[in-house]
From TrEMBL:
Keywords: Sigma factor, Transcription, Transcription regulation. It holds the Pfam family Sigma70_r4_2. The keyword Transcription regulation applies. GO terms for biological process: DNA-templated transcription initiation. Residues 126-174 form the RNA polymerase sigma factor 70 region 4 type domain. This is RNA polymerase subunit sigma-70. Residues 27-92 form the RNA polymerase sigma-70 region domain. Signal peptide: none annotated. CDD domains: Sigma70_r4 (cd06171). PANTHER family: RNA POLYMERASE ECF-TYPE SIGMA FACTO (PTHR43133), RNA POLYMERASE SIGMA-70 FACTOR ECF SUBFAMILY (PTHR43133:SF46).
Amino acid sequence: MSVYSKYDDYTLLNLLQEDDQLAYTEIFERYSKILVNHAYKMLANRDEANDVVQEVLLAIWNKRYDLTLTGSLSSYLYKATKNRILNHIAHEKVVSRYADSIADFIENDYVLADSSLRQEELEAIIAKEIAQLPEKMREVFLLRKVDELSYDQIALQLNITDKTAKQQVYNSLKILRKKLQSLLGIFVW
């Protein structure tokens, strides 16, 4: 049992702002399971619930220098998790509407003659952007998205933690979305 488990949240936050990784680990261990269960009740998907909580807890670490809470850490984490879930659900609805509009487009025989050419061009653009990712990030991304390995399998294969694997995939998706977002808007239309 760590001495950190005896600290209250306020003390842990102060230590966190001093780059104390063990304080972060204690916060993570103290709240991750509770938050995942909370997120699971809203999302009904364990992987999505885990991903949401990972993002919330990672944000705590990334914002550690600027983090000022007016209430308790637990209420902040619950609210941040809820907001992240609502953003996730809103994004899923947008994706669903987009997929429905594409399906409608195809069902109504508006398929363009050059659609296979466009698909090849799009695949080439995506492959090029993936190739430009940093080497380790690209390796983790391809193991997850192409080889469909779990985060635990990737961690074991590359001798890294599953948290590092998740973070690498999250970072690569963030980079790829940013690069491809403007291209896709032009490309589809």
